[in-house]
Amino acid sequence: MNDCLFCKMVTGDITPDVVFENDEFLAFNDINPQAPIHVLIIPKRHISTLNDADDALLLGKLMQTAAQLAKQFGVAEAGYRTVINCNAHGGQAVYHLHVHLLAGRQMLWSPG
Ligand code: AMP
Ligand code: ZN
To answer: Which of 30, 36, 91, 92 is 20 to 30 A (C-alpha) from 5?
Structure first.
């Protein structure tokens, strides 16, 4: 998509701080980290929101990629949090599907 921030990262128009890449996914450090490790994992194919994700295999691989990165960062055993925000009430700011991987500190449950 032309004016999608994360698509521009896929095409190389914007250069994120990449931590992982393969044919289907790109992972990079969040510009405004909420934890010592805060990585965003995106499918390279533009999908606006979780509501639009009709590819179960891709969704499964997206989550597996998050777990794989947690292992690579050495936080899998201590634990981590994965988050997908969807639409306005979910707090989604960038309308290109992404998983937040947060780790490196104790997460506290917050409904807000
Ligand atoms: P969400 O609210 O789930 O849509 O999350 C969007 C995330 O994208 C936020 O955590 C932002 O800090 C992050 N973000 C926005 N712009 C950039 C950027 N240029 N590079 C890396 N992360 C970004
Ligand atoms: Zn996009």
So the answer is: 36
